[in-house]
Structures are given as C-alpha cells and as structure tokens.
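Structure ticket #2291
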Amino acid sequence: MKLKMITILGAVLGSMLISAEIAAAEQPFSDLQSVKWAEDSINYMAKRGTVAGSGNGQFMPERHVTRAQAVTFLVRELYPQQLQAGGGASGYSDVPTTHPFYREIAIAAKNGLASGLPDGTFQPDTAMSRAETAAFLTRAYSLAVGKQSASLKDTADHWAAAPIRIMSSNGLIGGYTDGTYRPDQPVTRAEFSVFLARVIRFEREAAIQAQDWDKLISYMTVSEQVGQMLMPDIRQWKGQVTTTVNEGLKRSIHDQDLGGLILFDKNIVDVRQVTTLTHQLQMEAGDIPLFLGIDQEGGVVKRIPGGTNLPGQMALGAAGDTVLAEAAGRLTGEELRALGLNINFAPVLDINSNPDNPIIGMRSFGSDAELVSQLGAATIKGLRQSGVIAAVKHFPGHGDTSVDSHLGLPVLTHDRERLDAVELKPFRAAIENGVEMIMTAHIAFPAVDNEQVISLKDGSSVPIPATLSQKVLKGLLREQLGYKGVIISDAFTMNAISEHFGEHQAVERAIAAGVDIILMPQEPAAAHQSLVQAVNSGKLPVETIHDSVKRILELKSKYGLFDRSDSLANKLASLNDVIGSKEHRAVEREIAERAVTVLASRDGKHPDQIHQGDRVVIATADKDQAEQLKRQLIQASGSLSLKTEIVVISLGKATEAFQAMEQADYVILASYQFRNVASQFGWTDVQTIIDKLNKQSKRYALLSLGNPYEMIHLQNVRSGLAVYGKQEPNTSAGIQVLLGQLEAGGKLPVTAVRRK
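Resolution: structure written out below.
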C-alpha cells in the first residue's frame, strides 16, 4: 500500500525553494495574492506535505518548477516510505549524490516515474514545461483517456500529444482563450500545484465512485486517516453553545480532518436549526462525509425537541413485542435521517440484572437476556430500514454494575460461563443479525483480561477496561464472536478513562486494542496529533489504521453518506411530514399504553381506581412533575368532576406532607429513582406515606416513574403501577389506567424480589 505521510522528508532545499520543515508547510503563505486562482490548490498540497514554502511564509508561486522539484513533489505523494528507506542510485550523469534531490530522482527512476534524456542526463534544474507536466502526471497516475472533448490546436503534432489529450479529456488541464495549450511554456509553482491537486482530487473521486477504498486510503494523508477515527463533541466554542458552523468548528474539521461528530441537546434549538447545522457540517467536510451521531434511545435519554422521543427501552421490554420494537427503531431512524443524523447510539443491549445499577436501569429492555436479545435485534432492524446506523452499547455489558463509568471504573467479576450466558448473549444476537457498529464499555472484565495497569490518578493498580483491552476487543469481539463491523469507544471524557489514563496513552492504547473510532476525546487536537505521531513513528502499524479506516469508509458508503445531492431546502420542506408525525405519535402511544404494569393490587389485577368527584392529591418530590400529572389527570378525567391538589414531598418531611393528604379521597404517590443506587435512595419517606395511607384505608397508587424497583425496598404496597418514564407518553398512559380507561397489560421486565 502506498501510504501518504504528512511528515516532510528530505534535505534542506532552500535554494530550490522547497522547505523540508513541516511547520512551514502548515502556515498560510503570505504571497498568494497574485494567484488567488491557485490558492486553494497550493494550500491543499501544502497540507498534504507535498509542497512547501521557501521560508518566511513565502511560497514564490510564480517561480518556475524544475524537473527535480516536480519529481520531488510526486515522490512525496507516491513513495514516502521509500524516501524513509533511501533512494538508491539515480543513474543520471548530471545528478551527483550531492544534489539536493538525489534521493527523490533515484526513487523516481526506480519506479518509472520520470525518464532522462537520450544523452543520459536528467537536467534536474531545467524548468518543467506544460507538456512535461502532462507526461509526468499521466505516467505517475496511470490516467486513461476521459469522456470530455478536448480541442487544443497546438498539440496535435507535439511529442506530448497523447498525455495532453488524456489530461484535457478528464478536465485536468485547460487551454488559453485562443484555443492553445502552449505545451513548451514553463510551468510555475502555482500551476504545478493546481495540476497535481486536480489529479489527486480526480483520483480520489474516481476511487469513491468505484468504492475502491484501498485506493482512496492510498491518497489520504496520515492526518486524514486518523481523523476518520475521531468523533469529538462540539458543545461549546469560546464559551458559547455550538448551534451553527462557527469558525472554531470549521478549523477543527479541517485541521484534524475529522471523520465524525456527536451532537448533544446543547447543539439543538429546534428541528430546522439542527437540520441546517448537519447540512452545513457535511458541506464543510470535503470529499469524505461525516458520521453525525446522537444518543436517541428514547425515554430518559433523548435529544430531539418536538420529535417522537418514545417511552424508552424498558417500556418496550414491558410491552414485550418485537413488532413494536422494530417500529420504534424505524420511526426513530426516520426522524434522525430527516434531521441529517446518520448514527444512533442505541439500542442499549445491557441486561439490567443489578437493581443498584445507577446509570443503565430503565435504559435497558430488562433483566432477561433472551428478551433483551430479541428486542435489541428488532430495534436494530428498524433503524437499518430507515437508513440509520445502530451503534449498540455497551460491550461486553454494563448492566450488572453498581458504579457509573462516567464517575468511576466498574469491575465485573463474573466468570466466563456467566458472561456467555447473560451479558454477551444480546451482543452475539446483534452480530448474527448484522449489526454494523458496537460501542465499548469502560468496564473491566477480569475473566477475559486480568491485566493491571498503574493509575495516573493515585498510582494504584487498576484493571484494564474493555475499551483498552486487546483481549476483549480483538480476542473476544473480533475473533471469538466473529464481529466484522466498526468498533467505537464510549466517551473518553468519562472518569473510567480520563482519571486513570492520560489522553495520549489511552487513545493510542484504544486503537492498538482494536477501537476504530474514539468518541469524545478530551482534547481532540491532542488526540489527533498523538495518533499521527504514533503512526509516523511506527508505534501504531499502518495496517491497523488502514483496516479501521476501510471499515469506516465502507460503512459510510453502505448508508449512502457519499450522496449529498439533496438540497437544504428540500430537507427543511420535508420535516413536518416526518418529525413527530401522526403515525409516529400513534406508535409512541401504543408502546406507552401497552407498557403500563401493575406492581401491586388489592384484587390481583387492577390498581385502586379514581372515582367520580374524588379529591385527588398528587404527591411528588418535584413540583414540575406534579403539575404535569395534574394537567394530564384533568384532561383525561372528562366529566368526573375531580378536585386536584399538589403536594411536594421534601426530604425527611413525609409526615408534614401527609397532612395535606388526610382529606384526600385518592392519592397518586409518584416515585422516581434513576442515576443513583436504588438501595441508597430515600425510601423512608415513601414508606412512611404508604404506611399512613394503609392505616387510613385510603385509595392510592404508587406510581413508579423511573427504575421499577420499588417493591424491593417498600413493604405493604397495596396499589401500584410502573410506567418506566416520567415523560408525557408514559405518565398519560398511567393516568388512563388509574381512571379505568385502560387495562394495564405490561409485564415487569426486571426481577424485583420483595424484601423480607
């Protein structure tokens, strides 16, 4: 493979107007005002490390290019590895070993890139002609005759007629206004840069059209290749939230050659704004489109304002219907696609077997491996049908932990037999169903990899997390489970990585372990530079980078990302037909209604019912939540003439709160537990109120809005429902059940054993 290296190699070339210093190549040139027509090409070739200035920020664009300089540019493009190894003998009588370009000329001769004159000379310091430029470029890139008509009246009988025709028929060179090409006219540095840039871009486009990813990679710099392997977040720039393509974002995309970005709710104002943002991001990206991802799990993790955010994965688990799960994936994908997003970091395939899990909980389908496997596969199928990539998470499984990897480094101590039977089962099913992206977990699995490393946080010995483990990613995921798709890390800003491993070390180790894309590096520019240096130094094999980039490009092509023909106007015009559509809202309601689950009942089937004329007290720890429930109750109750009142339960003041409930006919006692360890939640206040309600024989319902583990921690609950989310679809369905308008047919998808 011919790998284009960004590092400039060679001797000091001052007199030849080519600097070997990479810093000079990266700085904008100050003398391009007279050649604005060539500025883009000069900067493009300079960034590739092919051309450079002569120092002091000067490019000297109108100076002529010599044959030696032209060969040097081409060798840097095509044979950088040979430059590192040395060039051999040139074979030309007028190119002594002391010539500044001796190595480059020797490499060109060895590879048939350029030939000498009949007298055995090369004439290295002679200015290149336009004819020679055409001949050199067609030979270097094996170009064939194109389809464009070419009529240049002064080239038909020229010795370079054939290469000139090849170049012009592909639109790579043009004539003057008088119809001539002037083949013997010397070529300036600006002109040569333009010709070479056109050929490289032409070849890249041809590779894209042919889906020849190996060829495209051969034309990508190391910077471009590792850039494809980074997906930063873009939440702020200069203290302001990023909702438009600002200058900082443009610089990041171009300087780091980024292959993707992840968006958060801070980046989103409304659907028209985010559609405009994603469109403009793709326009900024150059010839390789961006992965644009988002966490749209539904339920508690949602990003789209005005969209169909769905009741969440555990609600789907309670409904237990793969058809609904597929529909949920499909409609989510349709809305994301309409917004210009192409990756959904979902579904969650973690099996929430630990009620004390502080971060997964109701984000999971449930605690049964088979249920999670079936619903996960169906959701993946639905996303794929809509043209959105499902990035399932968090491999090998985050469900049985009591530590949030955002905050610390969890360790899962189960043996391999248990991992195979439980945690790995949904991922194995997803792989069998063709999942194309898997997100790693920052969790240690000693049964798979028991390596210990020294923590930068405190010098202690800590286990290696899956994201940095070759045994987990290459051994378990690739070799044993047979996964061939893209591996993306979880966020590198999470404490499980950021506290224990430096960015430089962690990024390199993750790529070496088998990660294809680093999600949310803490310092994207530093991560990018670390990877460039690791490749250039040989620390990371070029084959490793090549394999990852090829997987990324193949996936982008498979999902049509290279087709960016749809206009922004068309995208904006179609939003109202897709986002939050009537059909999508119907699916949302059906999932919520079929999910409602009876947790406790006096008759074994129904919670206590709200009756005509009841005085209903809605008791919650959050006033806004209480207002939402009150509004929904009033809307749904119709002619029942209910009187409603809100009570906010302050921590440790359950008795005072109950005073407002004593005159009630019915109490809705809402409970919400998520993002904390369930056993450490303040259950005492809830139990106090339950006991008082029971003592007074009041009708009530404990309404579980979060993780549905109340029955583990509470005793003597006589009426209760789980709705698996505090958003409106979920709570509305619960209210309907309490009013007797809907049967609660959901099945609790997690194990919740009553405390003895």
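Closing remark: The first strand starts at residue 230 and ends at 231.
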